[in-house]
Specification:
The chain is of the alpha+beta class. The protein contains 10 helices and 18 strands. Helix 3 crosses helix 10, helix 5 crosses helix 6 and helix 8 packs across helix 10. The chain is elongated, with a radius of gyration of 24 Å. The structure holds zinc ion (ZN).
Length: about 425
């Protein structure tokens, strides 16, 4: 049972973390993409040491790792908990001024600068009556994605250290840079981390357990025309820009696009076009929950590109598929207890599990394929990557309890 007299530390920690500007940068080629992330990471090392995780350290890439040693005689698998320090490049995370709206009574939440979190477009607010809701002043991101996750993991470690009567196996902690720019696992040393299974604490709504992500490929198509001086081009020029335009017109209009799909439907999505008369490159991302469907979509694109070449005699095209990541369900299905124990922890806390498939990738999907099965659990935040981002104090505390309980479930069932 959770000690109901415990003074949670997650909110105080969170309010401290959001003051650090840790926005990652999509344009950058360095790692981390912006070194300002390291300021928070360095201080997290000190905080882990203060809690009592003595081996806490940051590696040359900015990954913070630490260990809570086992205190049980049982042979429990080593479990990891992971969260990311960076915030989205989409909205500034500088000079964040968090505000706690105590005892929410329903309706819209008006931020200091007049921006509104509308109850109508945020149905989750209905379940948060009486909660204390943390927002910004309306000028920046809050950064609950994923500083709430870091604060909750920290608080769970603090709880376990101050409650040594709770038996647990070895627990590993990692705080990563650059998740938001898709590079959070780029230098993640799975072997050094030493966990057998892990959880990212990076989901939204209370109860979320995410074990499925998209499978993803990229496709690059080069349309190759023929350039000659436009003044003397009659009957000779083949303009590859017009080939690309023709090709894009052939794409299905009512299906297979991000704009026309939801739930478990996949899509093909042009993300950039670049070129001149001689050569134009169209880049796509291809997404579905089923690996075989990716091949189907790629065959369709290839067929349309071939048709385009036929329509422009003398032209040619080059078609390249680049594998990106795969649905982590393929891996997690081989280790069903990872999901089961998370659901068991929620049951014990009386939290209704929400099991959804992520229409995107997570660090967990990449880690799962790097040998570390890693589903994603809720951290409590809402409206990620937007000025209207918010998180409830009560949900952060629930996530802390979930982490502690999950660690207990692993010990008990081993
Ligand atoms: Zn996140």
């Amino acid at each position: 049972m959770f000690d109901e007299n415990y003074q949670f530390t997650c909110v105080d920690r969170f309010l401290k973390y959001v003051k650090y500007d840790t926005q990652s940068n999509e344009e950058s080629e360095t790692f981390p993409s912006d070194p300002k992330q390291l300021e928070l990471s360095k201080d997290l090392v000190e905080e882990l040491k203060e809690i009592g995780l003595e081996d806490a350290h940051m590696d040359e890439w900015g990954y913070v790792m630490a260990t809570l040693p086992s205190n049980t005689d049982k042979d429990v698998p080593v479990i990891g908990f992971i969260a990311h320090v960076d915030t989205s490049p989409a909205v500034s995370g500088k000079d964040v001024k968090p505000k706690i709206h105590k005892n929410y009574q329903g309706g819209d939440i008006v931020l200091e600068n007049g921006k509104v979190i509308e109850a109508d477009s945020n149905p989750e607010l209905k379940d948060m009556i009486g909660f204390d809701i943390i927002t910004t002043d309306g000028t920046t991101l809050l950064g609950a994605d994923d500083k709430a996750g870091i604060a909750e993991i920290m608080d769970a470690m603090n709880y376990l250290v101050t409650h040594p009567e709770i038996k647990h196996g070895t627990i590993k902690i990692c705080f990563t840079p650059d998740e938001e720019v898709g590079r959070g696992t780029e230098h993640f040393d799975v072997k050094k981390f030493g966990a057998k299974y892990a959880y990212t604490i990076d989901g939204g709504t209370r109860g979320e357990v995410e074990t499925e992500t998209f499978s993803a490929d990229a496709v690059n198509i080069d349309f190759i025309g023929k350039n000659v001086h436009p003044g003397y081009a009659k009957g000779k020029m083949i303009n590859s820009i017009k080939m690309a335009a023709h090709f894009l017109e052939l794409l299905p209009k009512d299906r297979l696009s991000p704009e026309t799909t939801e739930g478990r439907e996949g899509y093909v999505h042009p993300v950039s076009i670049n070129g001149n008369e001689e050569k134009t490159t169209v880049k796509f991302i291809i997404r579905d929950f089923i690996d075989e469907k990716l091949k189907e979509y790629e065959d369709l694109l290839k067929e349309l590109a071939d048709k385009t070449v036929e329509a422009f005699p003398g032209s040619s095209m080059e078609f390249k598929v680049i594998e990106q990541y795969r649905n982590m369900k393929n891996i997690l299905d081989q280790h069903p207890q990872v999901e089961e124990f998370a659901l068991e922890a929620l049951r014990r806390l009386g939290i209704k599990p929400i099991q959804s498939a992520i229409r995107g990738g997570t660090d967990g999907s990449r880690l799962s394929y790097m040998g570390l099965p890693t589903p994603n659990l809720f951290a409590g935040g809402h409206n990620f990557h937007a000025i209207t981002e918010y998180v409830a104090v009560q949900d952060m505390e629930a996530a802390t309890k979930m982490i502690v309980t999950l660690i207990q479930v692993w010990e008990e069932k081993s």
